[in-house]
Amino acid sequence: MISIGICDDEPSMRRTLRRPLEQKLQLLGTDYQIFEYDSGESLVLRPEAEGLDILFLDIEMKELSGMDTARTLRRRDSHTLLIFVTAYPDYVFQGYEVHAFHYILKPYDERKISRVLEQALKELGAVKEQFFPLEQKSGTVKIPLRNIVAFSSDRRKIVLTMTDEKKPDFYGKLDDLEGQLPDFFIRCHNRHLINLNHVTALEKDGCICGPAGLKFPVSRAFQQSLEVAFARLLLR
Prior knowledge:
Elements: E1 2-7, H1 11-28, E2 32-37, H2 40-45, E3 54-58, H3 66-75, E4 81-86, E5 102-105, H4 110-124, E6 131-136, E7 139-144, E8 148-154, E9 157-162, E10 169-171, H5 174-178, E11 185-189, E12 192-195, E13 199-202, E14 206-209, E15 214-217, H6 220-235
Parallel strand pairs: 1-2, 1-3, 3-4, 4-5
Antiparallel strand pairs: 6-7, 8-9, 8-12, 9-10, 11-12, 13-14, 14-15
């Protein structure tokens, strides 16, 4: 069970941060608890604070600032991974004093939140099998991401292409989905997000994916980023 804290004196900012965190944790299949704090004072007085695995901590708060809150936690020998959130990049460098793990700038970019959270979970050794929660009439089905070759947009629906050639679908937008997925899912076309781990070859106007050798179109707008991502994968 991963315990995560969000400390921000603005309720709207806590909600805005919590939503993508929960989406990512559910996608990863990670058991978690999220605690919210409306001030540095309330955080340091709570008994579970010292045992938090990850803390998203706003720097600019009234009374006890985020930096002072972090100093208090470190004096207690807390090993929490500190991730500062701030609207001012200049504050980021102060994080070295309290051994901050990372930082996120406001206004929030959901992809940045997702990447930083995943890095923190890897640091904790908490990344497990990753799943995609597919809503069905019978309930939610957890599909391993390694079994998904691509997500494709078809009018108001998104169709999954699976390694077993099944094609379940759900209502949604590809733009919304893209920010929730790990970096190995990359856009190759306005209508397609492909799993780089299943790409076997790149061609001039398409990419070959999966055991069935399916071909997905590659548009000019995404060609360079796809080629770079594929080359990096091959070098790992």
